[in-house]
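re: the backbone from monday

yeah here it is again, tokenized this time
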């Protein structure tokens, strides 16, 4: 919205890297990781307050790689 990014999509990963599309059965003892959808961003990431980016990094909400990718003009992003 207004320049923000896309939200995450729902998906299920089965142990060993198989992706599930639609209905399916799991083998006994199989491990499934379920990733629920997330919302997209609001506004251009480049105009985000650098203090908020730094706080998200400190709190572990975003990784250094995410900071470098989405907030490249923020001083110190991802360092």
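seq for it, each position gets an aa:
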């Amino acid at each position: 919205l207004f320049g923000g990014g896309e939200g995450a999509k729902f998906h299920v990963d089965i142990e060993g890297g198989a992706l599930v599309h639609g209905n399916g059965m799991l083998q006994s003892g199989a491990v499934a990781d379920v990733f629920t959808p997330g919302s997209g961003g609001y506004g251009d990431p480049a105009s985000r307050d650098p203090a908020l980016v730094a706080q998200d990094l400190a709190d572990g909400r975003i990784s250094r790689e995410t900071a470098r990718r989405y907030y490249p003009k923020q001083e110190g992003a991802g360092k």
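The first helix runs from residue 50 to 59. The radius of gyration is 17 Å.
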